[in-house]
Amino acid sequence: MSQSLWESDTAVEAEPAQSAADPGALSVSVDDFSALEERILRAVNLLKQERQMRAAAEARAEQAEEQLREQAPLVNQLRTELSALKAERDQVRQRVERLLAQLDALEL
Q1: What is the number of H-type helices and E-type strands within the chain?
Q2: In which region does residue 32 sit, left (phi positive, over 0), alpha (psi from -120 to 50) or beta (all else)?
């Protein structure tokens, strides 16, 4: 006498997941869906803009690095010249100081 639950006279029907009194609890309204769609589209557009801005920034960074590489020899040359000019200035200062000292000695 084995009967399945469905065949039994005392079988209990499963309750629906959603009661008839609250039909909109799990459904999404058209306005909510439109608002969600709009937010997603804005997020996608922001992401596209961010990617474009990032690509542009990376391109500018590469360009700046290239300019830096190109100008590095010039910077080194200018440093060398600056050191030579400072040394020459010191020599000229020493010569002028000697000349002034000789002039001071003549006036005594």
Answers
A1: 1, 0
A2: alpha
Cα(100)–Cα(76) distance, integer angstroms: 36
CB half-sphere exposure, 64, CA atoms < 13 A: 6
Q: How far apart are CA 34 and CA 38, in angstroms?
A: 6
Question: Which DSSP state fits 106?
Answer: H
> pLDDT for 47-70, tens place per residue?
999 999 999 999 999 999 999 999
CA–CA separation, 25 and 92 (whole Å): 93
List, for residues 35-48, the tens digit of each pLDDT value: 999 999 999 999 99
